[in-house]
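Researcher: Sequence of DegT/DnrJ/EryC1/StrS aminotransferase family protein follows. Predict its structure.
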Amino acid sequence: MTKLTVGPWIAAQKLPSRDVARDRHAFLERVRVREESQNVAGFPLVGLGGSCGKPCFQLPYVLTWTDQNTHGLEQVAERFGCYVEYGVYPHLKLHENDQEVAAVQDWTTFAMVYLRPGYERAQELLVDLAETLRPA
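Model: Prediction complete. C-alpha cells:
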C-alpha cells in the first residue's frame, strides 16, 4: 500500500494563514514549487481540485463512459472497499465512512483522476483505475 508522494508539494502551496491571503508576493513564493513537475507511477500531476484540493493526475487517453467501463469502475471500487457515487462524474467512496478517495473525470482531451493524498492505497488505486479504464 502506497500513499501519494506529492504531499509536501501540495502542502507548500497552501495558504499558511489568513494574514497573507492578500499578499501577492507570498503567493508567488508558494507557487514556485509548480515549476517542478510531479508524477506518481508515471502519471503526470496536472493540478489540484479547486474545491477539494485533491491532486489530479492525467491518464494517457480520452475516456468516454460506457456500460462496460462503468461496470469495470465498480469492480475497482469493490476491490478497494468502495462504492461508486455517480454525480457529474463518478466518485469512489469508502463503504466504512463514505469518505471520498477518488474521482474520475472525462474530458474531450484526456481523462483525469483526483485522489485523496492521505489514502493509504492511493497510488495502487491510480494504477488500477488507469489499467481498468483504458479503452480497448
